[in-house]
Amino acid sequence: MRAVDLIQKKRDGQELTSNEIKWLVEGYVAGTVPDYQMSAFAMAVYFKGMATREISDLTMNMVKTGQEFDLSAINGIKVDKHSTGGVGDKVTLILAPLVASFGVPVAKMSGRGLGHTGGTLDKLEAIKGYQVERSQDDFIKQVQDIGVSVIGQSNQLVKADKLLYALRDVTATVDTIPLIASSVMSKKIAAGADAILLDVTVGEGAFMKTVEEARELAQTMVDLGKAVGRKTVAVITDMSQPLGRAIGNRLEILEALEILQGQGRQDITHFICELAQIMLGLADIEKTVEEIRKHLENGQALAKFEEMVVAQGGDLEDLYRPVNVAHVVDIPAQESGVISALPAMEFGLFAMRLGAGRAVKSDDLDYETGIVFEKKVGDSVQKGEIVAKVYTNGKISSELVTEFQKYVKMNDRVQCLREIIEIIS
Ligand code: URA
C-alpha cells in the first residue's frame, strides 16, 4: 500500500477499507507514514468526511496504538466523563467527587488547556503538591480506596492521538467530526471505564458552532461507545458564555470549592447536579437533582474532593488560600440594562493573555491570574456597577478595562441560557 493512494482516495470522496485504515494508523505511529502525508490525509477528511464504518475503524485502530487500562479490579460500574472543551469549565472538579460521594467509582484521566480553553489538569496543579502523574496501579488503588481519582492522561495511552492531535493543531484540521470523535473515543475506550458521559460543547467558545453539528458529533461518539459495549450518553451544552463565574486555574479551584460547599451560582450548581444524575444513572443509581444537591449542601462531596486532593499529595491549607496577584481590576458596566452576551472565546483568550492559559504547548502558566464575573448573561446591571474583576500580575492600564468592556454585549437579543441543550443516548 502507498499513503499517497489512500490520500487520493479520500480526497476524491471515496471510502477507505478497514485494512487501509489499519495500515495508515499503524504506519503513522511506526513513522513509515510521515507527518506531511498524514496532514494531507487529515485535510482530505476535513473536506470529504468519513463514513460511520470508517470512523469506527479509525477509532479502534487508534485504541490499539497504546496501552488499554484494565479497571476490572475496581468493584462497581466505573464511570468516566469527557468534555470537548470550554472556557471556565471546572465541572470535573465538582462532578467527580460528587458522583463518587454516592459510592460510584470515578477513574478519570484529564488533559491540559490550550489556546482559549482551559484544562482540568492545570486547575488541579494550581493546588500546591497535587500530583497528576500516577502509575496505573496507584490510580486503581486510589479509586479502590476512596472512590475517585483524577490524573493526567497516561503517555502510554493512544499514541496515535498524541501524534495526530499535535499535527491537527498546526494544520487547521482539529474541527472536523470524524477526527474529533475518533480522538475523544479512542482515549475514552482505552481508559477502560464501563460508562461514559460526553459533554459536547456548542457555541462561540467551542469547536462545534451550531447545535446541528454538535448533535452529529454527539451521536457519532455515542454510537462508537455503544458499539464496543460501553454505556454512553452525550449532553449538548452551551459554551457561548464562560461556564460559572471564574476563568483561571486557582480562581476556578476556589469557585469549585464554593459549589462543593453548596454556595455556588444556581445555574452552574443545577447543571452539575443534572450531569451527576446522568452519570449516576449510567451506574444504575436513580437520584433526583434535589437528592444530589444535598451532597453539596451537607459537605459529602466536598469531603470526597478533599480526600482526593490529600491522596494525590495536595496541600489542604493551600487549597483554601485566596488568590495571590499584584492587582485586582474592577470592570464597570458602560451602560445600564441587561447583559446579552459574554463571548466565551474572547474571554478565554483574554484570560490566556493574563497568563492563565497557553498560546503554545510549551508556555508556562500563571496559576493565580484570571477573571471573575460578578454578572452573567441575562443579569441586569446599572451603569458603573461591577461586571467582573480581572486578577493580574501584569501592568494595569486603561486599555485593559476598555478591551474587556468591548466584549461585554448589552441590551441585544439574549443568547442561550440553558446549560444542557439536548441529551443524546
Ligand atoms: N478533544 C479531544 O480530545 N480531541 C479532539 O479532537 C477535540 C477535543
TrEMBL record:
Entry EC number(s): 2.4.2.2
Enzyme class: transferase
Molecular function via GO: 1,4-alpha-oligoglucan phosphorylase activity; metal ion binding; thymidine phosphorylase activity
SMART domains assigned to the protein according to its UniProt record, in alphabetical order: PYNP_C
Function statement: Catalyzes phosphorolysis of the pyrimidine nucleosides uridine, thymidine and 2'-deoxyuridine with the formation of the corresponding pyrimidine base and ribose-1-phosphate.
PANTHER family on file: THYMIDINE PHOSPHORYLASE
UniProt protein name: Pyrimidine-nucleoside phosphorylase
Organism of origin: Streptococcus oralis
Species classification: Bacteria, Bacillati, Bacillota, Bacilli, Lactobacillales
Gene: deoA
